[in-house]
Design brief:
Chain lengths: ~425, ~120
């Protein structure tokens, strides 16, 4: 470690960039509990806490795996497929900028990237809520954060083969959005449907949580996209502003489609549209003009809406539609860059519409490779974990609910009929049934 | 004329409704209740406070039926609500003195017989 006093800003570090990245990191971390609210509102009341806890668990598990090996495998060296172990245990990650271009401390860069790994692990849980065993999810989260997230982060961000080719992915269309979406599909297939899926109506229990969660996610996304330039320069400002434009346009499309389909604009649909819009602009944020960002919102919402309407008619219980909202939207965003990127806006490359067909090829490669890798690895990983431990709760536990089964708590406890267990007598106390007198 | 009261698991409420509809029982009230039927296995902890939950969430169906519908109604409740574990619930059949359909003023058998269409 370099010898620095607490007040020193080391050479090459820009104070403004560092200030913004500190705030952006906190904003992205907030997205994970926000996602917890969003998801918890979408499930039945007996599974509220467990659904939120999967997001909390993602923070615990993925932060640790990230510090131990994930960060190193993603960002150490420029190997084609995977990084090295030079930064394992955060060895050598200190106050100096990471490389010649970076203007923020390496430690902060690592922290910012950690919050991405955390939310991506949390996203995948949406496919398996209401029936996956909590313990099995913890194991899955730990392994997935390394073998899927860290690898794809290396491909797109860490100098791997996609970054090397020149694939443009501003804030994580590859490692976050397509990775979580297509992993979610694999997870839903391996873990299997909820026992009542397709037999009973399984409805969201609190639409207000869904809206509140979506609002907080959008707020956090300004750090997610706005911070992915790692500075306070033009590309960060562009990504920040596009994060305002695209979701707003996706909302407009969603309202229109809802009105055409059911003659009513739905609230949960609107919350979904906000997420879809944020995801659409995630890969493209700092690369396309504000005008094209609006077009992306209007048009990109269409395939996501179609998949959200179609998926519940299938036998695949990909419960909270991570595939539609993240996989399909990320795929669309990544490809869109290949058409409309403008060097005048991003300073790096043009897309097909501006005479550079090669860019579309690079984008298409990412749009094929990332889903294939994420789906295949997640499928294999869960099959392997399934050999060691059961992946899902018993039918009885599923009927009782995950909250009571795995956490011994309820989200909406009334307290009536609760008998205090006094520690002294080891918990065995007579049962005071209501006194008939 | 009897009042059939069925107290069942909330997660089986939809199955019970289905079974009742199949048995052509169509006048039903349903309410959420909490009850105790001997099961005490649920222990919950909130920070330092550990409690045994003495009351479980249940759903109560109340169905007023003419005599020939009593058995089909009871059968439907059993069929829909049974899981085989402790906590499946109870059915009570009690005599019913009078029933009035508010809309028409019909009483008793006429009041508990569904109108077609």
């Amino acid at each position: 470690m370099s010898a620095v006093t607490p007040l020193t800003v080391v050479a090459g570090v820009n104070a403004g960039d560092t200030a913004w990245m500190l705030a952006a990191t906190a904003l992205v971390l907030m997205m994970t509990p926000a996602l917890g609210l969003f998801y918890a509102g979408l499930v039945r009341s007996k599974n509220t806490l467990n659904t939120f806890m999967m997001c909390v668990a993602a923070i615990a598990v993925a932060m640790v795996t990230w510090a131990l090996v994930g960060y190193s495998l993603a960002f150490d060296g420029t190997g084609d497929l995977i990084g090295g172990l030079g930064y394992a245990g955060l060895h050598g990650v200190d106050f100096l900028p990471r490389n010649g271009e970076s203007t923020i401390p390496h430690l902060l860069f690592m922290a910012f990237q950690a919050t991405f790994c955390i939310i991506t692990v949390a996203l995948v849980s949406g496919a398996v809520v209401e029936r996956m065993r909590f313990g099995a999810f913890l194991v899955f989260a730990a392994l997935w954060s390394v073998v899927v997230y860290a690898v794809l982060a290396h491909w797109a961000f860490g100098g791997g083969w996609l970054a090397e080719r020149g694939t443009l992915d501003f804030a994580g269309g590859v490692p976050v959005e397509m990775a979580s979406g297509f992993s979610a599909l694999a997870a839903a297939l391996v873990v299997g449907s909820r026992k009542d899926y397709g037999r009973q109506a399984l409805l969201p229990h609190n639409a207000m949580y869904v809206l509140l969660g979506a609002g907080l996610l959008w707020f956090g996304w300004f750090g997610f996209n706005g911070g992915s330039g790692f500075n306070t320069g033009n590309n960060s400002v562009l990504a920040f502003t596009n994060t305002l434009l695209t979701p707003a346009c996706a909302l407009v499309t969603w309202f229109v489609l809802d009105l055409i389909r059911g003659r009513k604009a739905t609230a949960i649909g609107a919350a979904t549209a906000i997420i879809v819009g944020c995801v659409l602009i995630t890969p493209a944020g700092g690369f396309i003009s504000p005008g094209w960002a609006m077009a992306l919102g209007f048009l990109g919402a269409l395939p996501c809406y179609a998949v959200i309407v179609w998926r519940p008619r299938t036998r695949v219980d990909e419960t909270l539609d991570v595939l539609a909202a993240h996989g399909i939207a990320g795929f669309t965003g990544i490809l869109f860059i290949g058409f409309v990127a403008q060097i005048g806006w991003n300073g790096i490359a043009d897309g097909l519409f501006y005479g550079n067909a090669d860019q579309l090829l690079d984008q298409a490669l990412a749009a094929l490779a990332a889903p294939a890798y994420a789906f295949g690895m997640t499928f294999a990983l869960l099959k392997l974990i399934g050999l060691v431990m059961p992946l899902r709760a018993s039918e009885r536990e599923e009927a009782l609910g995950m909250d009571v089964t795995y956490h011994g708590e309820e989200a909406y406890v009334t307290g009536e009929g609760a008998i205090l267990v006094v520690p002294e007598d080891g918990g065995s106390i007579p049962v005071p049934v209501a006194d008939p007198a | 004329m009897k009042l059939v009261i069925g107290i069942v698991r909330p997660e089986k409420a939809n199955d019970v409704l289905e079974a009742l509809f199949r048995a052509e029982v169509r006048g039903i009230s349903m309410s959420r209740v909490q009850g105790h039927g001997g099961e005490l296995e649920r222990v919950e902890t909130y920070r330092g406070t550990t409690v045994q939950m003495g009351l479980s969430e249940k759903v109560r169906f109340e169905i007023a039926v003419s005599d020939e519908f009593v058995q089909p109604t009871v059968d439907a409740l059993c069929e829909g609500a049974r899981t085989g574990d402790v906590g499946d619930g109870k059915i009570f059949v009690v005599p019913l003195e009078q029933a009035v359909r508010i809309r028409t003023g019909e009483t008793d058998h006429g009041a508990v017989t569904p109108v077609d269409g």
